[in-house]
Amino acid sequence: MQTPEELQQKILQLVEEKQKLESYQLVNQLLKNGIGLLLNQPSTRLIESFLEQLRQALLVPYGILLQHADLWRPYAETDADASSEVDWLAWQPMFQTRHRNIVDTQLLSEWPALSQGPLMPFRSLLLVPIQTRTQQYQLLLGHPSTAWFSGVREQIALQCTDFIAALLEHAELAALESENISLRERQLRMEQSLIQSEKMASLGQLAAGVAHELNNPLGYILSNITTFRSYVESYNRIIALYRARDQLPVAEQAALTEQIQQAFAKDDLEFMLGDAAELISDSLEGAMRLRDIISSLRRFSHPDRGQIEELLVRDIIESTVKIIWSEIKNKTTIEYRFAQEPLWVKANPSQLSQVVLNLLMNASQAMNKPSAKIMIETEGTEQMVLIRIRDNGSGMSQALQKRIFEPFYTTKDVGKGTGLGLSLSKAIIDEHHGQLEVDSVLGEGSCFTIHLPRFVL
Amino acid sequence: MAVYRTAFSAATEPTQLVDELCAQLQARRPANVSFVFAPQSQLRLLGQSTSLLATSNCWIGGSSCLAGLTEQHLSLGQSQVAVLQIDDAAGAYGVGFAELTLEQPLDSLIRNILLQALEHAGRPAERPSLIWVCQPPGHEEHVLHAIQQVVGVDVPIFGGSSADDEVSGLWCQFAQGHCAGNLFAILAMFPSDTVEGYFTSGYGLAGPSAVVTAVEGRRLLQLDGRPARDLYFEWLGRPYNPAEPMILARCALTPLARVVETIAGLPILLVSHPATQEPDGSLTLFSRVELGERVHLLQTLDVNFSQRAAMVAATVVRRLLGQQLLPKAAIITFCAGCMLTMRSQIPELLMCLRRELPEVPFVITFSFGEQGIFADGQSRHGNLMISAVVFGGAHANT
After folding, report:
1. ipTM of the complex
2. Are residues A43 and A174 in contact, defined by beta-carbon separation less than 8 angstroms?
3. In terms of Cα–Cα distance, which of B188, B176, B41, B181 is closest to B99?
């Protein structure tokens, strides 16, 4: 049986534990309120709201959370902007890596310099450092009475700092997320801009060839039309002679009939009649060729608005070849091996054309021999469409193959290339959930393969 | 992580005393603080040794009745010096001290000493985890009040009023090599380990009680309108002997007390030990009582003092264990008056304490007044009390 003294000890112990439980209860209530804030408050108000809860629980008139970013500055406070006149630089030595429970500010020699704004009346201070993964903070609570922050109040504040740190990390993550989104958008815009620049650079490179390509049919269209005009003039003269002869009595038509026959013979009207059809046919073909080239150029150079379309792979390839043909026709032949079935993909036509153009340009530049040949091959599997562009040029070493997709990496002389073509091409194909691969043998040639998800109509 | 070690010596020759202590206190660098308890004759020898003082940044202590003891002792011998050293790189400790003079009021002296201690600890104006006081008997309530005026009432204040062997006023206090009878010393502690303390007496209400109807400081003049001495001895059932003014030892088992608090119906007793009886019928006490307060006669409880001391330590250890902490060191303050009446039980006292504090270094001082914190959280001064201050950490002391 326990002695009265043992019972007394036991009861006193229980009383003490009861006091501790009450303290824990207060902390738990604070944390519970904090979780409620987390669920219901916008992140910008979270810290202020919890700080206010803590202020009320500790019965202090003021609390502030400071953040260190080169200098200490207010992050949240219970009385908005109350600390605007406080020189936080002067407070720097007060903030340490351990918490500080100041029983009487009058005992601090530096207090006169620190006593500003809402902090002036405070005799007690509790300073608690809070560290998140990326930032330092200081919690500062004050009270006009001395020794306000008893052991219990100090412990309550310290037990809440982990939760405050969690709230701060939550806010930091939200800010990082927002910044990440903003950076990602900026990156996309820059990529688009780069792609457009690369596109224009390609066009710039092709400008002379394209101009020649346009000039060629234009030249013979003009020539044909000029010739056809002279034919029409001849037709008009002969028709005028016929009309004049028909106006005369039959007995007087002999002279004009003679002139008509001379005109036929002189202008070789039979030839003209036969040649005119050919002139028109050639001119129509030239005009259509011009239209195709211009249409391809327009599609290629159109500012990319990110539109995704259902594309027939063969059309994109042929359209792109038209743009580049003038550049490469004297260097290489092109052989096509298109899949028998139509192969569709969902892609941005301008960007896909850009990729094919880059690969064709690189292939043609890798070859400098009479037997230079580019083979363009398409293949379809159940899930994927493959576009292979193979050349029999100089090929690449293994080391070079590992680097060619790096931005700004180029084997060309300065001023001859941006070094972005392949890296952008890869980025474009990646964006289309595809792959761009290279397989090359030094001295034998290279094969670039575009893999894209197949679209089934 | 703080490290604690004890040292002791029974040498009375100064060089030998210092050598023996230094040999046990060897450390690569000065420790933070050393507590020293010893008979006043030996305590006065220590201040002259720079080599010993160099082993700690702070030295604080007081004279202990007959001896100071450590966990290494088996019995109470004569002239034993006990030291508890704390090596705590992550903590902060500071000592302030001064002698009481006629020129300076005690309140302002204590305030200045406390501020000095906080400054010495490198923590000016900050709330310490615990305050240790070394002082002569007579002004303990004032000292407590002066300290609480600065740091508030909830900072634990522990200590033991210095004692000598025969209540002849030869006690002394020790701080930073200074030793004097009117010296007051305060240690402000900011340990990296957790420190808990408990403070109680070994008495229960005997039944009789009366109201203080006349008092002057620690001189109890009248109870219920009658001379205090007369009523007190009437309660004891025996006559007083006018030829024996000193009644300290005789009354150790039947002191007086005030009920300062009642918790769950249990009275919290603050004991006052009658020291002398006066011709005018008054009693001088070792602590104050106030006019209008009811004082009670006490009697010892079934548990003897040895077991009581162990229970006090066990209460604190239990509190530490509840925080998942292990005890690492302890300071036991034991009333010299009690000790003198149960001197033969000292071996049992040591054994009981070692059982509650296995492989834990501790020191014991026998004092003429004890200060500590009750279960209501208030620090008070009392007599015939036992206190235990225990340091606890996540790992055992190594």
Report:
1. 0.86
2. yes
3. B181
